[in-house]
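To fix ideas, we close by showing one paired sequence and structure record:
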Amino acid sequence: MSQTSTKTTVFLLSVLALTGFYIHTLYTVPLEPMAKALPEAYSPRENDQQWSQLFDHDQSRQPLSIIESHQGGFVVAGHTIHGTSGLGDETVWLAKTDSDGDIEWEQVYMGGHRGWGEAIVECRNGDIALAGVIDDEFSTVLVMRIDSQGNQLWQQIFNFTQHQEAYSIIELPSGNLVVCGWIWTYRPTNPIDGLLICLDSSGSLLWHQRYGGVLGERFYSLTYVLGGGLAITGFTESYGNPLGQIWIVNTDLQGNPLWNVTSGGAAISRGHCIISNPQGELTVAGVRQHEETERLDAFVLHTTSDGDQVWNLTLGEELDEVANALIACSTGGFAIAGKVSQSDESPWHDMLVARLDDYGQVLWQKAYGAEGNDIGISLVECSDGDFVLAGTTSSFGYLSGTAWLTRVPDAPPPLVDPRQVDLPTTLLGLTLALIVLGVTGAIYLRSRREIKGRIQQCS
């Protein structure tokens, strides 16, 4: 073998050795965590909960709203269903938990009436204001003020027409309360309008307004806009798509309309929640029907203070997803809660939580649940940055749905490194690398001896 061919052989075998070593490294060295997960890639049924609590003592409960109390712990509002303990069927329900989700107290209100608590807000003095519905022969709006121990301070029932319902409540800097929902209007085409009601801190009615056109409208959520004013979202059938589009309405503090816009394109869409930032910009989360597949997509949009769209985000192109709740996070960006279908064919859902940055990019998504129907209805950010989700589960409780609280970290799901393999494959890669290195070394030593022998013969 010539000296040139020997060097070439050694070089090629060295390359093979380095390749083998790289293969070994590729299969054994873990990846550094990524800053973002793929937009549509969440790990189904996470198990990173800090804790989970079920309210399944002797009947089913459904939470519709959750807040973190300034006194510590959480307050949950909703209703009981299928009661067997004397609490009644579909009764307005309120519960206070500690920071671990254990019940400190719970109360039911409006006994003997079918009703539910749709939304709550903690007032500046620690009281709780609740908005809901009493649905006996006709539906009426219920507004209550409750102290920090669950004792009712006052209640008001509003029946301006045959039917009206409330879905959201806020406290203004003045201490007044504003409720949004919908109201029957007696129009033959579609007799429903959006509704705003304003009360003072004692429950006295200050004003109420209805909003809509010739078809149907509903309000689902409202927020105070810094600098004075209200922003409300829901849907409209009178403006844009007659099957319903996201509707954002801006009013002054007396309920006088300033502007309104629709969003969602040609698809059917609904705005379920709205929040504002210190600049007066608005963010809305809800649901939008995919134009081609007719799947339901979670939809988030961000606008200027004048309602001009800045960005929008669609989640769920492969599976049905719905956003039921939206919050702004203390570290920036947003979090949404809702539901995601378990598969293309399944009618069941998992509880969904997704984290977005300030520009509508998905940081991560997670799903929680089991084989039943599990839905996220509301969420709150804790003082330490974790999230507490409130929803219902049939996987772990009653078939009709048991109240479920779970605390989850603000962290992406664990990454599954596609390069990680089992131990035998890893050992195989290492063995191949060692064999190649051994053969290369043996050839190299043999070539050195041959060259040395030829030199000695020539001398």
About this structure: Residues 299 and 381 are 20 Å apart (CA to CA).
